[in-house]
Specification:
Length: about 60
């Protein structure tokens, strides 16, 4: 059972997350031959103040 974990900065819309889930699922089905019902995708919405880039939070960078 393939299990994909996706870490993204918070702020994506429900529609964008749905598209990520659909496309990652399809890619895993195509790459591994696993039945679609066996694929799991977990999106982690990370608060911008918890994501660091070059020593600065994404929030402070205006991301």
């Amino acid at each position: 059972m393939p299990f994909a974990q996706i870490y993204m900065l918070e702020g994506r819309t429900t529609e964008q997350k749905k598209a990520v889930i659909e496309k990652v699922t399809q890619a895993l089905v195509e790459a591994t031959g696993t039945p679609v019902a066996n694929v799991r995708v977990w999106i982690h919405d990370v608060p911008k103040e918890n994501w660091g880039i070059a020593g600065v939070s994404a929030k402070d960078l205006g991301r």
